[in-house]
Specification:
This protein is of the alpha/beta class and 250 residues long. It contains 5 helices and 9 strands. Helix content is 34%, strand content 18%.
Length: 250
């Protein structure tokens, strides 16, 4: 059965791979991202929706229009997000607010806009891309971890709210994934294939949750590289991270 799903962060990384897999499975995808210029998606079943999810002032109206234009939407996969790491005292107020806006507030606003339609559906899914940082907080990642812990709590609460409907809620928590997420950061996973997760692996986990028998809900899936190896870059070997988070870098 063909479904219509929204994927945020659909222009790169995990969001792009998830979009491709959904299209391969015969579904229709509405992709949300700030810039699709580098995304290679050639399918009639794909609709791009350019939107900066860090711009909260524009989101309520844009999401309302999207829900009205596509009442057939029966699934949402939230992949957009960004990381920024360092001691809390090194963050500006704008940087803290930016991470919260993108990683937490924007998916909350999107769910709010879509929930009335999803609850009317005979079968609907919401999948959030979390992180291993949603399970255990670590040094230098206080703000990022806080957004992912909060998103995980949001997902758990939504499960209770949706208990009488056909809406399932799933959280995917990957460790370090080999994507552009690490651009501008002071570290990255090791180069051996056992040191990182592929974006395709996470996309496959998302597909598994979506294709599970309707009577069963996968609450969470935690993914880890076989061997956790972190490589620290010297300051001159990385690009400066922007003050305002950009999309999509999960």
């Amino acid at each position: 059965m063909m479904r219509t799903l929204i994927v945020t962060g659909a222009s790169s990384g995990i969001g792009l791979e998830t979009t491709k897999r959904l299209l391969e499975c015969g579904h229709r995808v509405i992709g949300i991202a700030r810039d699709f210029s580098r995304a290679e998606i050639h399918a009639q079943a794909f609709v791009s929706f350019s939107l900066d999810l860090a711009d909260l002032s524009a989101l309520p109206e844009a999401f309302a229009q999207l829900a009205k234009a596509h009442p057939e939407i029966d699934g949402l996969v939230c992949c957009a997000g960004q990381g920024r790491f360092g001691g809390i005292e090194t963050f500006s107020a704008a940087q803290i607010q930016g991470l919260i806006d993108l990683n937490l507030t924007s998916p909350c606003l999107l769910v709010r806009a879509l929930m009335p339609g999803l609850k009317k559906s005979k079968a609907a899914d919401i999948v959030f891309l979390g992180s291993e940082a949603a399970l255990v907080g670590g040094g230098q990642g206080a703000v990022y971890s806080a957004t992912k812990f909060a998103l995980r709590g949001f997902a758990q609460a939504l499960r209770q709210e949706c208990a009488k409907s056909a809406v399932r809620v799933t959280m995917i928590n990957p460790g370090m994934v080999k994507t552009d997420f690490f651009e501008g950061l002071s570290f990255r996973p090791g180069s051996d294939e056992t040191n990182y997760i592929e974006a395709e692996d996470v996309a496959e986990a998302i597909i598994t949750a979506l294709e599970m028998r309707r009577g069963t809900v996968i609450d969470e899936i935690n993914l880890s590289p076989l061997k956790k190896v972190i490589v620290h870059r010297p300051p001159g070997d990385r690009r400066k991270a922007p003050l305002k988070p950009k999309l999509p870098k999960t």
